[in-house]
Amino acid sequence: MKLDFLKRKKWVKLELSNQAWTSGGGQSPTAHVAQTPAVTTNAGGAQSPTGKSDAGVSLSPTKNPPGPDEVACPGCGTLHSKQGWARNLRVCPACGKHGRITSVERVAQILDLETFSPIAQEVTSKNPLKFPDYQEKLDKASLQSEAGDAVLTGTGRIHNIPAALFIMEPDFMMGSLGSAAGERITRLVETAIENRLPVIGFCASGGARMQEGILSLMQMAKTSAALGRLSSAGLPYIAVLTDPTTGGVTASYAMLGDVILAEPGALIGFAGQRVIEQTIRQSLPDGFQRAEFLVDKGFVDRIVHRTEMKAALEQLLKLHGFASVSVAAVTIESKGGDTHVS
Ligand SMILES: [Zn+2]
């Protein structure tokens, strides 16, 4: 099951979505799944992966629109070849901007090759409130995203340490939290409890999904309760906040990590800056709601560069007593159930 998941996907449709480079970085997902990511295992230092300019990367910011084989940095506009952009894990050599990546790409960057085994993929979004045009949006999003919903859940190994992961999918309605996403995360956490696994969650979300109304808001309590049971079982939960982590996700499981990491420059907040300014009638400081600001204020424990993330997670898991195991020793019972969610 694990490899089939990565092989049977609709790459043609993904290629279509790549045309809209401004929506999420416009990159070629196929390049990432096929190749081993250039993730370093060096745990020390914040060495830039981009210290050297590889061929195909122009370090001069430009106003020109990207060509068919180019990607414009969402931070500074510098044009990169698609290959160079993928090689750099979608981190800009010129400005350090961490571009958005899909859940499947994240799996390739974080987990050992071919160790990912999805959980609860059969749980997908419905339209319980008969919200106008919602079903059409779901259909379109499912074509643009590999995850099948706003979060990809499963187990895998990080340098041979077994772990349960959920990875939010910005390409699926901006990672908004609906009933299906909440159910997937809950089943993942229950699987982790049954198998004594740590949970790592990559958050990227615009918040709760308005088309599901109160059912969407209920997922905040449901996932939080599941994480409470994980904590009671003595198992750690590491939250990784990526750009953007906002709304109901910030108000629930994104902020419940025993350890909270963040990618550089990530937007992290509940309400938007403009809404807050209009409410309190004060202007907010520079860098408000950015990862660096939140580290300074104590909401985030540490900022980790994308190239260092796998090593940092390995280090944290070992600190919490989880050790590498042989492949033969890994048997994980996934949490089942019907596809009805509420
Ligand atoms: Zn840039």
Automatic annotation (TrEMBL):
Annotated keywords: ATP-binding, Cytoplasm, Fatty acid biosynthesis, Fatty acid metabolism, Lipid biosynthesis, Lipid metabolism, Metal-binding, Nucleotide-binding, Transferase, Zinc, Zinc-finger
Principal location: cytoplasm
Pfam families recorded: Carboxyl_trans
GO CC entries: acetyl-CoA carboxylase complex
One GO BP: malonyl-CoA biosynthetic process
EC number: 2.1.3.15
Zinc finger (C4-type): 73-95
Binding note for cofactor: Binds 1 zinc ion per subunit.
Binding site for Zn(2+): 73, 76, 92, 95
GO terms for MF: acetyl-CoA carboxylase activity; ATP binding; carboxyl- or carbamoyltransferase activity; zinc ion binding
Location of region: Disordered: 40-68
Polar residues compositional bias, start-end: 40-51
Source organism, top-level taxon: Bacteria
Subunit structure: Acetyl-CoA carboxylase is a heterohexamer composed of biotin carboxyl carrier protein (AccB), biotin carboxylase (AccC) and two subunits each of ACCase subunit alpha (AccA) and ACCase subunit beta (AccD).
Family as reported in the entry's similarity comment: Belongs to the AccD/PCCB family.
Name of the protein in question: Acetyl-coenzyme A carboxylase carboxyl transferase subunit beta
Organism of origin: Acidaminobacter hydrogenoformans DSM 2784
Gene name linked to the record: accD
